[in-house]
Each structure stands twice: as structure tokens, then as C-alpha cells.
Write a structure and sequence with these properties.
By secondary structure, the chain is of the alpha+beta class. It folds into two domains: about 5-205 and about 280-305, no CATH class; about 230-275. It has helices at about 5-10, 15-40, 50-55, 60-75, 80-90, 90-100, 100-110, 110-145, 165-185, 185-215, 250-255, 280-305; strands at about 215-220, 230-240, 245, 270-275. The protein has a four-stranded antiparallel beta sheet, covered by helices on one side. Strand 2 and strand 3 (about 245) form a beta hairpin.
Amino acid sequence: MTLRSTLLTFKIQRFETTVVVGAAILSVLVSAVVIAVFTAGGYARCATDEVLSSSSFCHTLIADYVERVARWSAMIVPVFPVIAGLLIGGPIVARELESGTARLAWSLAPSRIRWFAQRAIPILLVAFLAGLAIGLTADALTHMLQPATDLDASFAGFRNRGLLVGVEALLVASIALALGAILGRIVPTIVFSLILVFAIGTTVDKLERGVLTNEAVLGDSSGFSFNDDNLYIDSRLRMPDGAIVMWEELNALYPQYSNGWDETSGISDITLYIPGSRYHDVERREALAIGGIAVLFVGIATVAVLRRRPR
């Protein structure tokens, strides 16, 4: 893959890449200004000093406005990987199939794989880097809003900051790339990609929750102070005989408590959670899983391009 072919790819995708890269750059710049104003004004102390937080200093027009912009910026982070991935990944192959230029390119190119790689690799890299930039910016915004939180040991903003945002953008772009190579039309590619993205996201979340449930730490709710540092998984009941049961199982396994119980019963509420210290372990594992799915869809796209008949 040469520099010339890469520039040609960006020229073909100039509208999409301009929108995605421009949005990422604008978000980073706005967030940098917000963080600079917030830090220079000393407003970070408002989140850690209870006495100061109720003073007029922490509720000036500038302080409220800067914090509001930061929260709005953090709220749009989950949307960016989906929009960016669909916008930048869908047209890579679908546009050339729909317009018919792929037929001419395939007749001239020495290899369809080379043609495909020249178009897919730069665009997928842009999707990942743009998402990563947004993820790292979200890290900085989260630290600004929660300065007392150690983000390396906290699930605050889990999946909406850091590495996972970049990997999610790569996954969405890969799904759109594969469906574009199969369908050969941009609009159906975007629609079906959006559906598939949410289906895969739901499935991954369900599987990951099952794994995390098996790894979760048990804590008595009476002595467990839950906060954003720990990842809440579920609530259970510890019975007098030491058995751990779900609420749905209570009536079937212990019918004597179906009408309720008091403090003398020996039943206690417990919480299943993942300690914040395991944040990066969970993040890396999920990133590898999502990245693996993205590679699978790139493979599907490659096969679709190789097997498609020119028309």
C-alpha cells in the first residue's frame, strides 16, 4: 500500500473523513478549552471541598457553564463510535459497487485484495484513531468532573472513555464495511449495519456480564458502600444456611419466606461487584474481544469482495 493509494482513498472518502476527523478535532479542542478554564479558575476544588462547593465561587456563571459543557461533551461520547463508524465504514466498498467504478478498478488492478486493502486499511485506521481521540478526551473530562477519582482504578464512565471508544468505532466501521461489500448499496448498508451493531452490542454485553458475574466479589449490602469505582453486577440474598440465591429463586427454594422475613431470619442482602482495581484488566479483555469481532467482519468483507462477480 503506497502513499499515493492512501491519498486516493481519502480523496474518494473526503466528505466522510472530513466530517469524522473534523468532529474529533473539534471535540478535542473544545474539551481542552473547557478543561483549561476549569483548571485555571480553580473550580476543581469544588468537587473535593464540601464547604467550598456550596459557596458562590462554585456557582458563578462561568463555573456552571463550563461544567455543563463538560457534561454534555461526555454524554455524546457513546454516540460518536456508532455515527463515525457507520459514516466512514459504510461507503468504503458500497459506493464503488453502487456506482460501478469497482468493475473498472477490478479489471485494471492486479489483485482485488490489494484494491480492497488500499481502501479499507486507511479508513479503518482513521475510525480507530478518531474514536481513541474521543475516548482519551472523555478520560480527561471524567477526571475534570471527578478529580478525586483514580481513573486507573475506577469503572466511572466504563465503556464511554479510553481505549474502548476507539475499538467500538473500529467495530462499527468493520461491520458497515462487511455489509457494504455484501449489499453493494449505501442506504441499506447503513440501515442493516445499525441494526447489527445494536444486536452485537447487546450480545457482547450479555456475555461479558455472565463472565463478570462468575468473577464478582460478594459484599454485604449493609457494609458495602457502592460507588462508581466498583462495577455493580447484581444483588443476591444470603440465606441462613449460607446459600446464595437470586431473588427469583427465593420462593421456589425457600417457600417459608415467600411472605417476607424479619431481621431474626438470618437472611442478608449481598452485592456482586467487580473492584475498581480490575478496571484495566476488564477493559483490555473487552477490547480484545471487540477487536477480534472487528477482524472477523473485515475477513467477511474480504471474502465478499473476492467472490463478488463484476456487474
